[in-house]
Amino acid sequence: MSQTQTPTLASDPIQQALCPLAFQMRRVSGAVVGRAAELGAIESEMASSRGGLAAVTLEGEPGIGKTRLLLAATQMAADRGFISVAVSADETLRGPFLLMRSILSSPGATEAAEGTDAEPVLRRALQALSGRGDASLETLPADQKLLRQFDLTALALRALALIRPVALFADDIQWADEDSLRALRYAVRTDAASPIFLLLAMRPEETAVLTEAVNLIADMERIGLIRRLRLDRFTPAETAAFLRQHLGGPVDVNGAATIHAQAEGRGTWPRTPTGLRRQPSRPSSSAGPGSCPRTRRSPCRRPRCWGEASACATSRQ
Ligand SMILES: Nc1ncnc2c1ncn2[C@@H]1O[C@H](COP(=O)(O)OP(=O)(O)OP(=O)(O)O)[C@@H](O)[C@H]1O
Ligand SMILES: [Mg+2]
Question: Is the pTM of this model over 0.85?
Fold first, then answer.
């Protein structure tokens, strides 16, 4: 299909967002408990990104609250007028440029680009990344083709940032494809002066064995563009607040302390917290915070998935 026949980026089925954060967004309920320092750091880096690229990592063990914080940051970006793009790498769905294609084809990017000078730039990058580029690209040697794809990606991000500051959120970086991470590294170098805020959430142990992710973070650290946030476990007071929020009412102090000790301060949640609720309240939802994510295909690595022994048999009990 020629460019003139393509009505909009968003309506092209091949170019629709591949790895959106939609699933995680549906799971979120209630405010972020604690994390004031992290939210403050994100807010400050987001503000400084208006003067040039700034990045933040959220690092922590499974279930610690990285995605929850990332979602809060997407709201912060939208409130501040950024073009907000949120994607998530997938544990099993991998392929060349999958994450980057998802970024460039996200509703946030395509809607902002529509009708602007950025629209053809974005389309060209997407076509190149998805192997539908012009014939000349296909005739290039592999390394030059890759470089061209990186170039077009960087140009597309820069073109978006000329419309409004851009906030890119990428969750579960430990599962990102290496081409996308390299493209991001290239963009960080070439678009450093553009108003781009980048937030990457990851499990550190798994990211440590992903060479391109390590390179990307090391590069940004060298340039001084990145702030790394490591999420700590909840304090007893935060666990109690978390439980209160989930149950929708006061909780028994001793019960909350027991849960805190058993969960070791993680944002994990007992499915049937016997004796915890102090007064009748609304029933707990069937998929509360910290519950085992049933959709995950590999064994759940969250430390405890209360009341979910069958779905989470390999987790530490
Ligand atoms: N600070 C918090 N405030 C409110 N809810 C939280 C907080 N931290 C975690 N949760 C809830 O706990 C659950 C687990 O958190 P989340 O999914 O963000 O963990 P994660 O670090 O992204 O884990 P994973 O590495 O498995 O992706 C979610 O339901 C989330 O909403
Ligand atoms: Mg997560």
Answer: no
